[in-house]
Design a protein that fits this description.
The complex is a heterodimer of chains A (113) and B (113). In chain A, strands 1-3-8-7-6 form a 5-stranded antiparallel β-sheet, with no helix packed on it. In chain A, strands 2-10-9-4-5 form a 5-stranded mixed β-sheet, with no helix packed on it. Chain A has no helices and 10 strands. Chain B is mostly beta strands and 113 residues long. In chain B, strands 2, 4, 5, 6, 9, 10 and 11 form a 7-stranded mixed β-sheet that branches. The termini of chain B are far apart. The mean pLDDT of chain B is 95. Classes of the chains: A mainly beta (113), B mainly beta (113).
């Protein structure tokens, strides 16, 4: 059974800092890994999807890396802004046909002006 | 494109009552997922559909929860009878095919008193 751990659980930083959010998973046989953000009272918004054959994906100020063999992914946020405040969740999807994403508890991020 | 629609947004019921949630996925999306998110935790998969067939329902408490996806489009999730521990946000997500990026609705917040 896939177990997903996200560190840190919470983070509070001043605007402008570069951030690193960590995700580790126990079963390295994954098909892909998605990073999501969740705003209070809302559903999840997909940020990046990395296929198991890829090492990283970039979208604007976001960069996600994947080291499948060690069961780790990192989300890097450059030049953080107050609008980045949200909970960030990672979800590796199992390989083997069903490709079901399993979620961690997330990292709660607050970026203050 | 229109997003994933869920209703109702909020529901308050007493324990032992029944409740139903509705989800309309993005048009053309073959896969549909129901997740349960308890406060402070990551989403937990309840059931995955591929078109109108069940792919995985191993974590669905089948003594009280049921779900269907008639005609491979809309889906309903039902709880009967509800327990206090069912208080959570129920999230619906859809994907074009299995393994593609997930798109989430805003969820239904259920409170069982």
């Amino acid at each position: 059974k896939q177990e997903v751990t996200q560190i840190p659980a919470a983070l509070s930083v001043p605007e402008g800092e570069n951030l690193v959010l960590n995700c580790s998973f126990t079963d390295s046989a994954i098909y892909n890994l998605q990073w999501f953000r969740q705003d209070p009272g809302k559903g999840l918004t997909s940020l990046l999807l990395i296929q198991s054959s890829q090492r990283e994906q970039t979208s604007g100020r976001l960069n996600a890396s994947l080291d499948k063999s060690s069961g780790r992914s990192t989300l890097y946020i450059a030049a953080s802004q107050p609008g980045d405040s949200a909970t960030y969740l990672c979800a590796p999807a199992s390989s083997g046909g069903s490709y079901i994403p399993t979620f961690g508890r997330g990292t709660s991020l607050i970026v203050h002006p | 494109e229109a997003g994933v629609a869920q209703s109702p947004r909020y529901k308050i019921i007493e324990k032992r009552q029944s409740v139903a949630f509705w989800c309309n996925p993005i048009s053309g999306h073959a896969t549909l997922y129901w997740y349960q998110q308890i406060l402070g935790q990551g989403p937990k998969l309840l059931i995955q559909f591929q078109n109108n067939g069940v792919v995985d329902d191993s974590q669905l408490p089948k003594d009280r929860f049921s779900a269907e996806r008639l005609k491979g489009v809309d889906s309903t999730l039902k709880i009967q009878p509800a327990k206090l521990e069912d208080s959570a946000v129920y999230l619906c997500a859809s994907g074009r095919i299995s393994g593609s990026p997930l798109h989430f609705g805003n969820g239904t917040r259920l409170t069982v008193t």
